[in-house]
Amino acid sequence: MPSSPPSPCFLSIIIRTMGTRPELLDDALKSLLAQTCDDFEIVLVHHRPNGGVCPHPADDAPAALVGKIVSVVSSRPGRSSPLNDGLAAARGRYVAFLDDDDFALPHWVETFRDMARSAPGAIVRTRCYRQKWRMDRSGGARVAVARGPRELGWAETYDLDAHLLRNETPFMCFAFPRSVFSEEALTFDESLSTLEDWDVATRAALKGVVVSNPAATAVYRWWIEGESSSFLHSSAERRADDARVAEKFAVALQLSTDAFELRRRAIADDLRRRRRRLSARAGRLLSTIARGMRRIAWAAGLARD
Predict the structure, then answer these.
(1) What is the mean pLDDT of residues 280-300?
(2) Domains of the chain: which residue ranges?
């Protein structure tokens, strides 16, 4: 009697890499080795847009992860093509994306799994720490060095309107049901040179439900120089990509380009008003605390007298 095929794992983790930052990829893979939930596979996509026969980065992966790695080679140009090729190879019920220069905290997979169990079929979202880093040299080797503390950023809950305006959530903070891609025919736009993550995450949110957890589950490396795509692509490229992404959001919302631009302006105005209100509240709170501290100091002075 033939055996039944194994059930799919919970999470397919797609990592794209060009193999040019092996020390950072090693950090990312080791962070997955430390996960408290091992119900995942790693789809490691070696992006070689110019061809070449260099070894696949999976060849140097930690031995304990070898059985979990699905190796893929992607040769088409652009940031989106390795993500689409990774999706084609993914077998998990959910899909998450981890850049080769970031790393997950030990509860990253477990948090996604628990959220998906509580809200089956939903897109799940957490938060992450942002931390400044730079590459230095030590003994002739390149090493990543933190240049500041970890800061917990981004909103506790997902705000679709804010994401129609700009990207407000790092991509590794999402896990998507794979059906969003396989059944809804959602793919990464290979004509974009930037913003492909914001584009896909927001179009997915327009099709489904996003459930949020305020916990930080990963570290987003904020490169001071050199390693980020922000250093590799011009502001003109980003403006062109922003216009292209806005067009797709308008189509998804069944709005004309002009009507969507008016909506974005209204969202921006509303966000500015909210920030001013929050700033005013924070100012009043700080004033109240300062008055309280002065009273405590005054009372302490009386007690000493």
Answers:
(1) 75
(2) 11-254
Domain 11-254 part of CATH 3.90.550.10: yes
Q: Above 50 in pLDDT, residue 3?
A: no
Centre a 10 Å sphere on the Cβ of residue 197 and count the other Cβ atoms it contains. 21
The token pair that represents 301 in the structure block: 């002075």
Look at 30-44, 137-151, 179-193, 273-287 and tell me which has the smallest mean pLDDT. Answer: 273-287
Token couple for 224: 């001071």
Contact 214, 261 (CB under 8 A): no
Q: What is the CA radius of gyration of the chain?
A: 22
| Cα(303)–Cα(281) distance, integer angstroms | 33
- pTM: predicted TM-score of the whole model, two decimal places: 0.85
Q: Which of 102, 97, 210, 101 is nearest to 156 (CA)?
A: 210
Q: In whole angstroms, give the CA distance from residue 184 to residue 139.
A: 50
